[in-house]
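Hi W.,

Here's what went into the run:
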Amino acid sequence: MEFWSEGLGKKELVMGLQKANVASEKEAIILTGVVDAPADWAYRVTMEIADWTVVLRTATSPEACVFLSQFVGIGRILIIGWSMVRFIAMLAMYRVAAERRRPTVSVAPLGRHGSA
Amino acid sequence: MIVWSKGLGKKVLPIELDKATVSVTPDHLAMAGTIESVCWEYTLRLHPDDLAEFTRLLANRTVVQFLARERGILLPFIARLVLFIPKLTFAILAAKTFGKLRRKD
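Here's what came out:
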């Protein structure tokens, strides 16, 4: 993945996502590692829920459809598809577990004068 | 999304991904925009390998557990995928069929 910004001048950061360390904080996922180019610089990318929502939306955008269909081989599309299946299955499993753990509120019956 | 690297010194770049424009080239998928706080432009380029790695990252247990804390992610994504897969299948078939016909000509 290549990241360029005006703040880097003519340089761009080449980040190998397969080597990123993934950690979770309260409000964000933190990806850290060392860039492949232009030098051995450490990097840190902080991604909140909103960012991941955008990633998922971009993954199913018309542009992604054009790119995948015209410029990506079938083998790689299948790899991406398999990762998506795993992602959905795991997310469903963890969502169900999270809902089960959510405390249920029980309402005590009211007494004669409206008190519990 | 906040990006920091040693090459940026003490600066961190807060990137609003939802405002990025997405474009396609034969080589990569690009997301570009402006970092409002410093008025700098940025570009993120994802090659096919990067897309595969990013989806593998999505299926990382830490990422999934983090996303599972929030409601409103799974079902909308499945709904988008249900619409996306037939479009992608048709687009692939069209690209392979018409691409071959064009090459023959």
